[in-house]
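Note to self: user wants both folds in one dump. Writing first protein now.
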Amino acid sequence: MSAPQYLDLPIDYESLTKVGSMMGSGGMIVMDEKTCMVDIARFFLSFTQDESCGKCTPCRLGTQRMLETLTRITQGQGREGDIELLLEMGKGIKDASLCGLGQTCPNPVLSTIAHFRSEYEAHIGGNIVRPEPAKPWSSPPAKTPARFAATLSAMPRSSRRAVMKRLCPSSA
């Protein structure tokens, strides 16, 4: 949701649903124009792929293939047709997965392609220029969402689940 028409969008379930977004757990991630959307899609897909229970093939293998494709793209090894492949796999995973995780895990990839396709094309065409990192927040680094997400994703799965149970006891 990068277009100026979304800047005044109310943050409620109905408004977000109308533009193809969702509330999720009620958290919000704010990024500036320097954030690479292809990297962000890869980060979130990596997390959900790791969380997959593996019971259904579309989620287990489909997210793995999507992650491999995104990794190639972010490493400058993307190929023509990768964007269409990601779209096809993402839609197939959403339609065929058995649980809510599998049905929503392709969303970051699908929405970043929909709103930031030019970034994917730049990666694949070898025209990506990595922006300077954003300036650090004034709050302590350990309390920033990015630092928390990075710390959480570096933990073993069992530790992550324990942390999430403590933070969100109702979802346990």
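First done. Writing the second protein, which came from a different request thread.
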Amino acid sequence: MASAPPLACAGWPHASVGGLDDARAKSSDANVRDGWTIRRRVALRFRLLRLALCCGGQHPTVHDPRCRHTHDPQRPPSVVTSPRADAAHLHRRLSDLLNMARPLRVQLDRRSERAIRGGHPWLWPDVLSHAPREPRAGEVVELLDALGTPMGIALADGTLRPGAPALRVLTLDERPPPLEKLLLRRLARARELRQRLIEPETTAFRLVNGEGDELPGLVIDRFGGVLVVRPDSAGWEAHERALVQALRSEGGGRIESIILRPKGGESRLLWGTEPPDSVVVVEHGRKYRVRPGYGQKTGFFLDQRDNRSTVQRLVRRGDNALDLFCFTGGFSTALAVGGAGHVTSVDLAASILSDVQGQLELNGYPLAQHTPVAADIFKWLPERARTKGAKYDVVVCDPPALSHKKADLPNARKAYRRLHEALAPVVTRGGLLVTASCTARLSADDLLEDAIAGLRTGGRRVSRELLRSGAGADHPVLPSLPHLRYLSCLVLALD
């Protein structure tokens, strides 16, 4: 009868399952008999681990014929000490694998515990300094307080970058539910809040705003029947299936497609039918054609929805209006629908000005009353100021973020002052200036200070601050994270 294939254990390359009893009978050496006994126990208990070691290159010359990986026969043989040593090595490897399978527990110091109990949802890489291992991306980590008592769970980002959170706290329940149930509960709560905040005819809004909806690092925007998921890290990407199931259950309304837009990656379909290149959404009576999952953010600046409605209310029929940094025409459309006699849209990228024209056509605005301009606004404004009669009753200025780091903020503030200095000559006497900033760490007070200083240098005075606002109510923010209120919008009346 043919013998079974040889088992792959370092130090015993010629052993076989069928030959164990024969080998034992032929040997009278007690040590050898003990060795064969150990050999058989190792073979039976660690067969899967032997395959992992074979494929991992731990014992390159001891190759299991059942393994399909390629092994280099020219590599020198492994040094084998004894069967007992080999068994101990296998046991250590198995312990390592079991340790990876166990839930990771991280004990916090008193400072971190106080911050988390105070509502801060982030933990920094230093809390992992005493952890048995680094967490994997998307791993649910158990949190222990300073006394070692369970206090909740957190989601691991998967990267340990300075200044970036390593863990995002999901709940402080001592007996937390599984992540799938937690997702369902939080999504249901977020959907119910939007039903209260958003009028039924508006079909584009933010369904989940990360930390503000107790799902830190996760943003979900809705464009009609298309949902765009934008995780802030790889942590949520590891739970795509759970996200899809939760959204299909608690996303609200009819969902046709769910798109994932990973940070720094290409958008891809997670579930449903492949969406069209563009969809038409409605916002306070205005229509917009957007491309879900492409362009800036998730496809459209939903955070400015309420400010666009404010502009639509403020403009008077026949006003000459100017939209600077117009992008795809969000504010230009609001000005047109509000009744402006003429709208000028200016942006550096000439390719997107056709999108602005399309938005105005979609809303029935005559294109003869619209002037698209592709130009560097910092250069275009001084040239426009020298043109006779180039004055505007309503000016909207919504530049992109001028800094992303705290160290760059002073230069950003200088740029805001130069920009408002250039704006001074083009606003009519008694006209309105709507100025916005999405620069992180620039508060509304800072923006107002820079606007007043720049306009004063340009020879104009702010007579009244009419309105101050930020992102819409569908972008909630935790009180413990006020710096996440990144958007400021001011309506100023000029003498």
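Dump finished. Worth passing along: The mean pLDDT is 85.
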